[in-house]
Amino acid sequence: MDVTFSQIISPQGAFLVGLICAIFLYIRMLRRMSAKSRIKLATPTEEISSARMSETELDRYSRHIMLREIGGQGQSKLRNAKVLVIGAGGLGSPVLSYLSAAGVGTIGVIDDDLVSLSNLQRQVLFDEDHLDYPKVFAVKDKIKKLNPFIEILPFNRRLTEAEAEVLFIEFDLIIDGCDNFLTRQIANLACVKLKKPLISGAISQWEGQVSLFNETKKSACYSCIFPVQPADGLAPNCAEGGVMGALPGIIGSVMASEAIKNITGVGENLNDKLLIFDALNSEFNKINVSKNPNCEICKVHHET
Ligand SMILES: [Zn+2]
């Protein structure tokens, strides 16, 4: 004899069973939704390391974070990086702007110059309100408005050999965009001694160059390639020989790009290579360079 469900349970009991089933199904649905959202948040490993960034930071750096090569992990590396920029002039302007916008957490800048009218043709961080104002403080004012999440450390003085090592030890990467050979030599010597990577850029009239030195013990240093000061007139600085206004923007942007790659550890860098840009003929050339066995700096400080 067939017995139906309604014959063995009262209507109140049936209602109770139905209610229990409905609650069970509801809880199961909630669990599934929660699991789905957990999976969605935890899939990329870099999301975990970027978890400590605020919503605003994640939004600000979202175009970096969505790049496969950078992601949240690379953005965290940028956030933790400490970079020193030598020179707040034509090259320093794009380097400082792009690294600040990119979220490099701590940026030191050393320069003893004041903003002058002739700087405004190419040094795009400054405007007429900054005239006669120390460049490093003008940088700080400007960058604070660009990205309040990073720290700018201004050093209003010229880099000296006595101070270089003490200053450089506080930073992971040194970027040299100064306009004179002596400062480049000082920066190189301190970087070799401390084994710090050095991104060096230079511009003159229509031509500019960029390289990354000291990445490894076997890499060339700046003095391997440029052991002596160029003869007078061969490489005039901007004040002596003039410079096309957009050139520092191009070379400085390459320097900033190399810095972002160096910090995040992606791509091919300019170690043992010299990138030369000829703006007059719109030509980029990359040449191989190597450690000079007779380099006085490497011989003393890189002996095995
Ligand atoms: Zn060398």
Key features of this structure:
304 residues, alpha/beta, Rossmann fold, 8-stranded mixed β-sheet, 14 helices, 8 strands, globular, disordered N terminus, binds zinc ion
Query: What are the bound molecules?
Result: zinc ion
* Unreliable spans: 1-6, 32-50
The CATH architecture comes to: 3-Layer(aba) Sandwich
CATH topology: Rossmann fold
- How is the largest sheet built, in terms of strand order? 3-2-1-4-5-6-7-8
Q: Helices and strands: which structural class?
A: alpha/beta
Q: Looking at the structure, what is the overall shape?
A: globular
For the record, the CATH class is Alpha Beta
Give the end-to-end Cα distance, rounded to a whole number of Å.
Answer: 97 Å
Rg from alpha-carbon coordinates: 28 Å
Order of helices and strands: HHHHHHEHEHEHEHEEHHHEEH
Give the overall average pLDDT.
87
Largest sheet: 8 strands, mixed
**Helix fraction bin:** 40-55%
Short description:
45% of the residues lie in helices and 15% in strands.
Task: Walk me through what this model shows.
With 304 residues, the chain is α/β, with parallel strands linked by helices. It has one domain (77-301): 3-Layer(aba) Sandwich (Rossmann fold). It is built from 14 helices and eight strands. The chain has helices at residues 5-8, 11-42, 45-49, 55-60, 62-65, 71-80, 92-102, 135-146, 161-168, 181-194, 222-225, 238-241, 247-264, 296-301; strands at residues 82-86, 106-110, 151-155, 173-176, 198-204, 207-213, 273-278, 283-288. An eight-stranded mixed β-sheet has the order 3-2-1-4-5-6-7-8, with helices on both faces. β1, α7 (92-102) and β2 (106-110) form a beta-alpha-beta unit. The longest helix has 32 residues, at 11-42. The termini are far apart. It binds zinc ion.
